[in-house]
Amino acid sequence: RWVLSLQCKGSRNFMGALRRAVEVDFKDKDKHKSQGLYLLTTGIPDQETQTISAYVAEVCRGFDLQLHVCLFSGTKGTDSSGIIPARYANPRETAKAFREIVQAANGRFHWFGEAGIFESDDITSIISEMEKAKKYSQKCAFLVESLKQRS
Fold first, then answer.
1. Of 26, 27, 51, 97, which residue is least crowded by CB atoms under 10 Å?
2. Which of 51, 21, 52 lies closest to 38 in space, CA to CA?
3. How far is the C-alpha of 146 from the C-alpha of 151, rounded, in Å?
4. Strand, helix or coil at 68?
5. Which pLDDT tens digit goes with each residue over 45-90?
6. What are the angstrom distances between the C-alpha of 94 and each of 21, 62, 87, 132?
7. CA R_g for the chain
8. Is 2's pLDDT higher than 60?
9. Mean pLDDT within 12-35
């Protein structure tokens, strides 16, 4: 319920937020086997993707940390107040940047908007598992049928 009382605020200073989360907020990181950070965002960070990816890769190797990104694409080119952000990128460029950052962090990427889900690593994984199960089921059915024909 506390999430409903939160207000959107802040900047796109991704590095500042990540440093704070990793260096200050994860004081007890040695006591946990794994940890995850979830970034909920509507746009591209102010810093360059390569810089963020390198930092994220280094930090995540230090302990079992995964960074997951949920990108929400709302009104094109603006934030919720209608102001163009300091560093602008179209939705596809933004998704590409976060995909790269997430790969460096061994995390998952989810991209959605008012029209629905555009991309989700979890959904892609589920679909892949379903396709494997279908192929396995077809092989089993073929084997059963060939055994019936031999009898």
1. 27
2. 21
3. 9
4. strand
5. 888 899 999 999 988 877 678 899 999 986 554 445 555 555 678 8
6. 22, 27, 10, 31
7. 21
8. no
9. 71
At 46, list the tokens: 């102010």
- Structure tokens given for 57: 């890769």
Backbone angles phi, psi at 38, to 5 degrees: -115, 120
Residue pair 87/48 in contact (Cβ under 8 Å)? The answer is no
Q: Is the dihedral of CA 141, 147, 150, 151 positive or negative?
A: negative
Per-residue pLDDT at 84 = 53
The tokens of 125 are what?
A: 């994984």
Where do we find the tokens 């995390």?
107
b (16+ CB within 10 A) / e for 90-112: ebeebbebbbbbbbbbebbbbbe
Segment 26-30 mean pLDDT: 60
Domain boundaries, the chain: 10-126
Structure tokens, 132 = 């494997």
pLDDT tens across 97-139, in order? 999 999 999 899 999 988 889 999 999 999 999 999 999 999 9
Task: Tell me how far apart the alpha carbons of residues 143 and 151 are, in angstroms, rounded to a whole number.
Answer: 13
